[in-house]
Amino acid sequence: MALDADTMVERRRLRRKLSFWRIFAFVIAVIAILAVAGIGAKDSFGEQIARVPITGVISDDWSQREFLRKLGETERVKAVILAINSPGGTTAGGEALYEAIRKLSGKKPVVATIGTVGASAAYLAAIAADRVIARETSITGSVGVLFQWANFKELADKVGVDMRVVKSDPLKAEPSPFNEDTPEETRVLADLIEDSHKWFLERLAERRDMTAAEARALGNGRIYSGRRALDLKIIDAIGGEETAKAWLVSEHGISEDAEIVEWTANSTFDEFGLSGRLSALLGQIDGLQKLVTRIAELASADGLVSVWKPQAIED
Fold first, then answer.
1. Which of 36, 4, 113 is closest to 281 using CA atoms?
2. Is 300 exposed, middle or buried (0-12, 13-18, 19+ CB in 10 A)?
3. Residue 179 main-chain phi, psi, to 5 deg
4. CATH 3.90.226.10 domain extents, the chain
5. What's the CATH fold of domain 45-142+222-269?
6. Whose CA is closest to 235, among 111, 94, 62?
7. pLDDT (tens digit per residue) in 167-196
8. What pLDDT digit, counting tens, does each position of 50-87 carry?
């Protein structure tokens, strides 16, 4: 059916009005979303002190080292607090983490706080920081290296298991749980442990301003309470996160208003912190997938072990 001129004009007018209100609604939605996201991300624009947890068994973790590298390049993070609660881990893992923390310390001040336990490889990580703080009853120290294995030869003999092997040399793949240990095997392992322990003691002497003899006397594998560790100068102060922040403020000029924010390997390194927040927020709103994309675009322009553990006590 043909439309008269007045009807066509009226329809065009309605289309223009509808387009106007659609654009207006879109702008209002964007403003509202930016306002909400801005509330959640307001800390992203001020100074931050990053809290980095170091927990569990320490291993040679590439992703952890890469995270620390990126953290050192993040401008809004002005300092780092390592929140350590770990019994230690592998010697290679402790060495790699130590080196990553030293590199981070070259870019911004780093403080280590020891909670329940920060021993062995975890203590090695702590002394890589610029300052070490522990609770009076924290467990720390345990500067040492160990190598453990089980021997099942007697059990295998009882059940009739005969383990056979062909190898290039007698020391290959030794010690074995199915063979009696030989003096030569024990000597080789002792040499390996002594060399790794020497490396640990060198780091202790270097970072805690000790002589080699002093480091050797303290690095005998024993654990210390926090207050005993303070007396021995293997930590710097008693306290926790508040103590760490106070030192950063007084000694490195960090703002007292700087917020302590937990950073992990899953944290976004978006400099303004808006893109990820907006995407997460808008992703929960039905029917706004295209808006999510658009707003995001606009906003985002096994071996040796250095570990402490209590041993079972037998009568």
1. 36
2. middle
3. -125, 155
4. 45-142+222-269
5. 2-enoyl-CoA Hydratase; Chain A, domain 1 (3.90.226)
6. 111
7. 777 767 667 677 777 788 778 878 888 999
8. 999 999 999 999 999 999 999 999 999 999 999 999 99
